[in-house]
Specification:
3 helices; alpha+beta; elongated; 3 strands; Translation Initiation Factor IF3
Length: 167
């Protein structure tokens, strides 16, 4: 005959299966939910700051536009360090199996490039310079070694150029 399970058996089964599942997938689920919310909020704030800047003082031209005489110049730079969340790393790992563009990484690195440029714009404006010429953007991979394999832990993006003040 079939035995009827009591409440203790059901609770024990739930704990035996539920706790390992929660400890395995809980952090990744949290990373997916909170990371998406956090990244969306950061992107919206960056877009607002970009709209408030007005005229873009940054260009990659090697000479200033026009015949204005330069009063002073200085090297200006800003940087952003960013790393993918656990969820993005999982999506990147799955994507690397099939190949193609890794959109999970592309979104955060696009934000980091835009953030570095916006910080440079804000620094130039607050330092009372008029323009930045000869803009360059450098990207550095920061990796850690795990069991003999290099793993990308973060990326640093540096935006720099020559800030100029006209007379």
């Amino acid at each position: 005959m079939a035995e009827v399970a009591n409440d203790g058996d059901v609770l024990g089964l739930f704990l035996a299966i539920g706790i390992p599942l929660f400890l395995t997938f809980g952090p990744i689920a949290f990373s997916a939910i909170y990371g998406s919310y956090y990244q969306k909020r950061k992107t919206e704030k960056l877009l607002e700051r970009e709209k408030q800047t007005g005229r873009d003082p940054v260009s990659n031209l090697s000479n200033p536009i026009g015949d204005k005489k330069i009063h002073s110049s200085s090297l200006m730079w800003e940087s952003v360090v960013i790393g993918p969340s656990w969820w993005q790393m999982l999506l990147g790992w799955i994507g690397s199996i099939f190949g193609g563009r890794l959109n999970a990484f592309a979104d955060i690195y696009d934000w980091a490039r835009r953030e570095a440029l916006q910080r440079l714009r804000e620094k130039v404006i607050s330092s009372n310079f008029d323009d930045v010429i000869n803009l360059r953007i450098e990207t550095s991979m920061m990796s850690s070694t795990s069991r003999g394999k290099d793993r990308t832990a973060a990326m640093e993006i540096v935006a720099y150029g020559t800030a100029i003040k006209y007379e």
